[in-house]
Design a protein that fits this description.
This protein has 240 residues and is an alpha+beta fold. The chain has a domain of 87 residues. It is built from eight helices and seven strands; from the N terminus they run αβαβββαβββααααα. The strands form three sheets. Strands 5-6-7 form a three-stranded antiparallel β-sheet. Strands 1-4 form a two-stranded antiparallel ribbon. The protein has a two-stranded antiparallel ribbon with strand order 2-3. Helix 6 runs antiparallel to helix 7. The chain starts with a helix and ends in a 17-residue tail after the last helix. 23% of the residues are buried.
């Protein structure tokens, strides 16, 4: 077990510069401007794509680099969809997204991916890759690239804290796994959070995690609310 924990810790190692790519993130206005007049775009010297000259770029780790890291840590790593359709294929949700379970060194965590506007076969590949990156982030892979601030700066009181002030360092491994899974669900909206919360059996660990982090999780889910989502907030139907 300690062997596996040591291997999992390697997932948190920073990726070398040559494995970090640049992803252009245009605003809606920038995209519309290029759509109306293609000549307003430029061939970007950073990412090689054609886009608005003022587009911001984000650092990210691509599918190949992530797969290489997973294989280094566990050559038998695997993923599977949370649900299957009637044809035996992964079931996508109403938003075109996909929930997966990523298993590394015997530890399984949830992830969610979406096609980001792509269609056809490219949408399927984009969704799977996005879900793998999201799930791997729950293990700590490329976590520094997901975080917008100084990830390892200590809190004022000397403890690691979440955005709602609850201590993360005080969580047990079981509670941390529950929190990671609920965080992943919250990113998909209130309905996904409700389903993930309900699926967790009642326990003291569940109650402690929800008491400490519930407000932040619900606020995060509300930020990702879809137009057709209006589920009850977790905890209203079931008291943790």
């Amino acid at each position: 077990m300690s062997d596996d924990l040591a291997k999992l810790a390697n997932l948190r190692e920073p990726f070398p510069h040559n494995q970090i790519s640049k992803l252009p993130k245009p605003t809606k206005q920038q995209t519309e401007a290029i759509r109306q007049d293609f000549r307003k775009g430029v061939r970007c010297k950073v990412c090689g794509a054609w886009h608005h000259p003022d587009v911001v770029h984000l650092d990210y780790v691509g599918h190949a680099a992530l797969t290489d890291r997973l294989l280094d840590v566990d050559s038998c790593w695997s993923w599977e969809p949370v649900a299957w359709d009637d044809n035996g294929l992964p079931r996508f949700d109403g938003n075109g997204g996909l929930w997966i379970r990523l298993t590394v060194c015997g530890v399984t965590r949830l992830g969610y991916g979406h096609p980001d506007g792509k269609t056809g076969g490219d949408a399927v590949k984009e969704t799977i890759g996005d879900a793998l990156r999201n799930a791997a982030m729950r293990f700590g892979a490329a976590l520094d690239l997901w975080h917008k601030g100084d990830l390892h700066a200590p809190a004022e009181n000397g403890e690691d804290e979440s955005e709602d002030g609850a201590s993360v360092s005080a969580l047990t491994p079981e509670e941390l796994t529950l929190l990671n899974n609920l965080d992943a669900a919250a990113e998909a909206g209130p309905q996904a959070l409700q389903m993930a919360f309900t699926a967790i059996p009642k326990s003291e660990a569940k109650a402690r995690v929800w008491a400490a982090h519930g407000p932040r999780l619900k606020a995060m889910a509300d930020e990702h609310r879809r137009a057709d989502d209006n589920p009850p907030a977790p905890g209203e139907e079931e008291q943790a």
